[in-house]
Amino acid sequence: MPNLSHSTIAILGIGLIGGSIAKALKENAPRATLIGYDIKEEALELALAEGVIDRTGDLKKCLEPADIVILALPPILIAKMIPTVCALINETAVITDVASVKNIISDSLKETPEDFQARFVLGHPIAGSERSGYTASNKALFYNRKVILSASDLNIESSISAVRELWQLAGAKVLELDRKSHDKILAATSHLPHLLAYALVEVLAEQEEADDIFLYAAGGFADVSRLASSDPGMWSDIFVSNAAETDRALDFYIKKLIELKEIVKAENRLELLGRFKAAKSVRDSFIQKHFKNGD
């Protein structure tokens, strides 16, 4: 594969993540050739008009010349597309993805030749927004953010290095984590919060006083429910793809809610105070350690 900054990179999916990757690479690797593919013509037209991608075409025209292929699509769609991608790419191309669930993609990869698996490096940027689509994309989305690579035993070092360099060019910090741990951790830290946000809005919307509730809702509700503005299609795919780990995380959360319910019912202020102080300390420490600049 040629030097990454002079490579041909195909991005399948020019939405929030794919569009942000394209913008970051256009900024930091201007000599690379970026090919975009998306079923939404308006996204491609806008990306072309802005000079973010250099050209587009059907899958065959996008994949055949690519040195690197980035699958910036929902996990179920990625899993379904893997056989097609495998059939169309050249024999040296490196492939990666951005999905927040790895098991479904890993299972699909098992049905492909080992040389394809060796060049497919599972990846996931820990960055995003409740907004979706190309118009929400941002060249700085990955700056100082973490990207997880879940390399397999079959991956060759040159492919891992290429994907690592790709994300470093986008400004990200690259970490490594096996796929099973990835899905378990993300179920608790990302998938569960989204599910809770959707549930909170649903609960309030079903109250008889829903109009008054939303009329008088404060900033706290806006903060907690922000994730419920995320793309419903993508997140329904994520929950189906990572159902077992999300179910496990929900069990722990429901148990904790029941404990808190009993403490509130008993009007045990001291117990609540102790638990709230402990939770505040954990979160404050997390923010201080991982978000020192307030972002």
Describe the protein:
- It is a single chain.
- This protein is α/β, with parallel strands linked by helices and 295 residues long.
- It has 13 helices and eight strands.
- Strands 3-2-1-4-5-6-7-8 form an eight-stranded mixed β-sheet, sandwiched between helices.
- It is elongated and about 65 Å long.
- The model has no long low-confidence stretch (mean pLDDT 92).
CATH superfamily of the largest domain: NAD(P)-binding Rossmann-like Domain
Please give the share of residues in helix: 40-55%
Task: Give the domain tally.
Answer: 2
Write down the Rg.
21 Å
CATH level-3 fold name of the largest domain? Rossmann fold
DSSP E strands, number: 8
Q: How confident overall, as mean pLDDT?
A: 92
Would you summarize the structure shown here?
The protein is α/β, with parallel strands linked by helices and 295 residues long.
What topology emerges from the helices and strands here?
Layout: E1 8-12, H1 16-28, E2 33-37, H2 41-49, E3 55-56, H3 59-63, E4 68-71, H4 75-88, E5 94-97, H5 103-109, H6 114-119, E6 120-125, E7 146-150, H7 157-169, E8 173-176, H8 179-205, H9 210-215, H10 219-225, H11 232-241, H12 243-265, H13 269-290
Parallel strand pairs: 1-2, 1-4, 2-3, 4-5, 5-6, 7-8
Antiparallel strand pairs: 6-7
Helix pairs in contact: 4-5, 8-12
Q: What characteristics describe this protein?
A:
295 residues; Rossmann fold; 6-phosphogluconate dehydrogenase C-terminal fold; 2 domains; 8 strands; 55% helix; 12% strand
